[in-house]
Amino acid sequence: MSRGWPELPYDALQPTLDTLHAHTQVLGKLSAALAPPEPQLQHTALRLTARGWETLPLPAPDGSGAVVLALDLHTHEAVVEHSEGRVRRIALTPDRPVGAVTREVLLAVRDLGGPVEINPTPQEVPWTTPLDEDDEHATLDPRHVEAYFAAATSASQVLAALRAPYRGRSTPVNAWWGAFDLAVGLFSGRPAEVSSTDFIMRNSMDAEQVAVGWWPGDAHYTRAAFWAYAHPAPEGFANATLSPDAAHWDANLGEFILDWEDIRTGPDPHRAALDFARSAVLHACDVCGWDTRLTASVEGDPPPLA
Question: How far is CA 280 from CA 145, 150, 229, 238, 259, in A?
Answer without folding.
Answer: 30, 24, 8, 10, 14
